[in-house]
Amino acid sequence: MIKCFYILFLLVVLLNKAYTQEPDIPLLDSVSVADPLTGSVYISWFPCDSPDVAKYIIFREINMNWEAIDTVLAPSTFYIDNGGNYPPIAANYHPELYRISAIDSAGNSSPMTLTSPIDMHHNTMYVFPYLDSVNCKMAIKLKWNKYIYWSENVNHYTIYVNINSTTWDSLSSVDGNISEFYHQSITDNTYYCYFIRAVSNSGRTSTSNQTCFYTNLPDFPSFINADYASVTTAQRIEISFTLDTSAIVIKNYILYRSDSEFGSYLQIASYNNYTALNLIYTDNVDVTKNWYYKLAAIDQCGNSVIESNLARNISVNVTSNDDLTEFIKWDTYFNWLGGVEIYNIYRIVDDSSPMLISSTVIDTFFTDALSDSAVNRTGVSGKFCYYIEAIETDSNPYGIKGKSNSNVVCLTQPPIVYIPNSFTPNGDAINSEFLPIVSFVSSEKYQFKIFDRWGFKIFETNNPLKGWDGKINGRKVPAGTYVYKL
């Protein structure tokens, strides 16, 4: 009797222990974003080793608390959290954290995976794009949170890209300890979408949300127009550039100069945070030589991103000939985007106002005939200066019409004098005045005197246009020989 009681008591104890023992802690396999639109999450786990598991409880972290969001009947090993049974899911906006526990048929519940030293919790990956730069080249930077608590750790992350809603392609992979990636060589006005896939060392995977970025890239300068390189009245070279003011990335510029088109260019000026439409620089150099100028836009890494067309000044040379001609020759203007429309040749006589004497479209030389009465006249000192004006066509792509003046070259013609040997002041208005004909002699340097045979001065003038009428004090002098001094 005593023996049977002992056996019955042992059976009751064993049965009671079986009904009160909690199931083993289940282990999560992975969590992934299931739907890029709704942000729903696919959660999978390994079957619990305990034989009497009836269901699994799914926990999600909500407001820093672990909340049971649903229950799944065994033997199922996955669950899709679409937020229908609890506050909305948002794995397409931020990471979501999950744990599970197991419940047996007696209602005994295992602890959450929180207590496991290996498999604490799993989180979805959230990736987000930023516009950034690499070596001053625009790029899309992808940043995501790491997938954690795989016992075998993450082996690598694969980045997938979809360009302009085409197909998904593998873009690149990074090591499992890296959680960012720069997509370089991107193009403007393009729709880029991405997702990240984590791959563990045992081949498990997790997929992030999908994120998209439309590239409306900051504008670099689309042009720099060299308007002109022109010699000023102070015999300096003035260089003007028109800038692309719509550019918001580049505000730094460097001005270069060279004495040959393909030679070495020397930096002569720099401009930081320059925002004006036009940039003008005056260079103190020998204006009789040719100089080449260009302006470069510089990024924050010191790289030249765009350069202007070249601008070269016009250099003119003038040669005097014995036949009262001046031969004028000049270099072509270089290098307007619209090309040269016309060259105007200007003459300056005795420091007077410039006068346009000719124009040419093709030629780069001109012969000025000084025997023309317009310049070969009394009172002109003989100083002749010349310069060339070049004008751009209307074909400049930016609507700019450049003008450039050459250096000014001056030459002086020697005086030319014709003196009569007689005159007849008899009142018939023919040859009635003794007047030397002079060319290239200024009034300031002209003096004409008449003396009688005894050396008395009877006439004097500083006016090259005034001659002697054969009178003294209004009375005619006797016919005879008189002496002049010029």
Topology of this structure?
Blueprint (H helix, E strand, L loop, with lengths): L1 H19 L7 E6 L7 E5 L7 E10 L2 E9 L4 E4 L15 E8 L17 E2 L3 E8 L2 E8 L9 E10 L4 E8 L4 E4 L7 E10 L4 E3 L3 E4 L9 E8 L5 E7 L8 E7 L7 E6 L6 E6 L8 E7 L5 E4 L3 E2 L3 E5 L4 E6 L9 E10 L5 E6 L4 E5 L13 E10 L10 E3 L3 E4 L3 E3 L18 E3 L8 E4 L5 E5 L9 E2 L2 E2 L6 E3 L1
What do these coordinates show?
This protein has one helix at residues 2-20; strands at 28-33, 41-45, 53-62, 65-73, 78-81, 97-104, 122-123, 127-134, 137-144, 154-163, 168-175, 180-183, 191-200, 205-207, 211-214, 224-231, 237-243, 252-258, 266-271, 278-283, 292-298, 304-307, 311-312, 316-320, 325-330, 340-349, 355-360, 365-369, 383-392, 403-405, 409-412, 416-418, 437-439, 448-451, 457-461, 471-472, 475-476, 483-485. The chain has one helix and 38 strands. It starts with a helix and ends with a strand. It has five domains: 2-122, Immunoglobulins (Immunoglobulin-like); 127-214, Immunoglobulin-like, CATH 2.60.40.10; 224-312, Sandwich (Immunoglobulin-like); 316-412, Immunoglobulin-like (Sandwich), CATH 2.60.40.10; 416-486. Mean pLDDT is 88; it is low at 1-18. Strands 10, 11, 13, 14 and 15 form a five-stranded antiparallel sheet that branches. Strands 18, 19, 21, 22 and 23 form a five-stranded antiparallel sheet that branches. Strands 26, 27, 29, 30 and 31 form a five-stranded antiparallel sheet that branches. It is mainly β. It is rod-shaped, with a radius of gyration of 49 Å.
